[in-house]
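ARCHIVE CARD
CATEGORY: sequence design from structure
SOURCE FIELD: tokenized fold
FIELD CONTENT:
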């Protein structure tokens, strides 16, 4: 592994090397279209099965869809707040958090590290699928997981767009400014990327005007 970690006060736009091993380094990068190509068909397959095999009607699909998407926004918030911004005391812990999220704060415009590579997402999706299958009655785990994945993809591409597109629609423009203030004004808040809902509910929606937060 490479120990090169830029200072958090000296962000750079270029990519930084994370691994000495060339294969691991390559796997840490991902083209923006890859998550859609990998996870999109999985989500569609799960939803098609829900209708064709499990005979779930449109009302049931809509209700489980709302539940799956809402659950994703909560997962997004909790992961960002409690895992990605966790402050470990050990060097190994610091390295782990840096690989998952710290590098993004140091190189926020790195186009190939804005979305999670499939190699990292696969074990997480697998564990979540097993968990959903355990707690949800048959056959609801499949469409729930399908919509959860769709929520993840929406988050991924909103996140990418906030860093690389102007986003002129009022709501998208709000999300862009909201996330940029998380990066450049105060990291201790605004953990939601696709929605500020859970920041509002859990008190991490800062009320100070822009420019007054302290990093």
């Amino acid at each position: 592994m490479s120990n090169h970690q830029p200072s958090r006060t000296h962000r750079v736009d270029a990519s930084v090397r994370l691994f000495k091993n060339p294969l691991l380094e390559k796997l840490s990068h991902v083209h923006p279209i890859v998550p859609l190509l990998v996870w999109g068909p999985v989500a569609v397959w799960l939803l098609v099965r829900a209708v064709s095999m499990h005979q779930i009607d449109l009302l049931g699909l809509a209700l489980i869809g709302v539940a799956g998407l809402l659950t994703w926004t909560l997962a997004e918030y909790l992961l960002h707040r409690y895992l990605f911004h966790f402050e470990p005391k050990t060097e190994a812990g610091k390295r782990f958090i840096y690989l998952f999220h710290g590098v993004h704060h140091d190189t926020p415009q790195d186009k190939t590290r804005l979305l999670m590579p499939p190699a990292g997402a696969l074990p997480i999706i697998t564990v979540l699928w097993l968990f959903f299958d355990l707690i949800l009655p048959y056959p609801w785990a499949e469409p729930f997981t399908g919509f959860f994945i769709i929520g993840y993809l929406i988050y991924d591409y909103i996140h990418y767009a906030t860093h690389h597109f102007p986003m002129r629609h009022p709501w998208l423009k709000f999300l862009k400014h909201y996330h940029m203030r998380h990066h450049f004004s105060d990291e201790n808040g605004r953990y939601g990327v696709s929605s500020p809902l859970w920041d509002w509910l859990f008190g991490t929606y800062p009320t100070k005007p822009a420019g007054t937060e302290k990093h």
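CARD ANNOTATION: Residues 22-171 form one domain. The helical segments are 22-27, 34-52, 58-84, 91-106, 118-135, 141-164, 170-184, 197-202.
SHELF: design records, drawer C
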